[in-house]
Write a structure and sequence with these properties.
single chain, 266 residues, mainly alpha, 10 helices
């Protein structure tokens, strides 16, 4: 079984590597075509300053396109749909675990589903935080006031803000996209900074141990800091998913409450 798993992993890594190479080649060809149009009939010398300058300009242009696409996507987001999507994905994880409980790879599936459930929560929170910043200037200002305390040691020079196409909002969104929400303290800190009193009594203790186990699965190859292998039973994974769902539901409910309160004030 170990040889089979090792062979399977080898083929998966090899196929992934081939895909990356293909995408790189396609993107490189697009850049070269774009660069030739910019330079006219001039040949492309990869060692030249002109080539380096165009490569940087092309990279910056793609980054700007991606950020703008992400911004418009955030504008379209429905907080209700975000939670519905989270719940749907979590239900699918339940089905996957249930179908493999007595199979030969049950332990691997338990660990994958366990870690995936935390990722689903992280994604929902990250999207919600960024969408709130885009949809309501009050939330943007709340984060602006505390972003340097949230991301300790990071400074936001005026020139960076001035150069960003969307100014303060764009810089804040980029900063928020770099935050990982699989740490209970981070979740609480960011949500309180963003939404204030309605998040102050949010209880994140139910996922503290879950996040710790998830970290060991993802970053220590399924072993504890003492190098002991982690073994999960399906019931443990179901319980973790239930706790994660409870927190996601609570956060969603508080967001709805805050948004409805804002509407009533106007």
């Amino acid at each position: 079984m170990g040889e089979f798993a090792g062979s399977l992993q080898f083929f998966e890594v090899r196929d992934m590597s081939k895909m990356k190479e293909h995408f790189f080649e396609v993107e490189q060809e697009r850049f070269l075509e774009w660069a030739r149009e910019r330079l006219g009939d001039q040949s492309l010398d990869e060692e030249s300053e002109a080539y380096e300058s165009l490569a940087q300009e092309y990279s910056d242009m793609n980054d700007a396109f991606e950020e703008e696409a992400e911004y418009r996507w955030l504008q379209r987001q429905s907080f209700h749909e975000q939670y519905v999507e989270f719940s749907s994905e979590l239900d699918q994880a339940h089905v996957l675990l249930r179908s493999s409980e007595s199979g030969p790879h049950a332990q691997t599936t338990c660990k994958l589903v366990y870690a995936h459930a935390v990722t689903l929560l992280e994604t929902m929170i990250s999207r919600s935080v960024q969408a709130l910043v885009v949809k309501d200037r009050a939330f943007l200002l709340n984060i602006v006031r505390q972003i340097e305390s949230i991301q300790k040691g990071k400074k936001f020079p005026l020139v960076e803000i001035a150069e960003h196409p969307r100014g303060v909002e764009g810089v804040i969104l980029k900063s928020l996209s770099e935050i990982t929400f699989h740490n209970p303290a981070t979740i609480k800190t960011v949500l309180v900074a963003l939404m204030g009193d309605c998040m102050k009594d949010l209880d994140v203790s139910g996922i503290a141990q879950i996040c710790k186990v998830r970290h060991d699965i993802v970053h220590r190859n399924g072993k504890t800091i003492d190098d002991d292998p982690i073994t999960l039973k399906p019931d443990q994974v179901y319980e973790a998913m239930s706790n994660i769902d409870d927190l996601a539901s609570d956060i969603s409910r508080r967001i709805f409450g805050a948004l409805n309160k804002t509407k009533d004030e106007f």
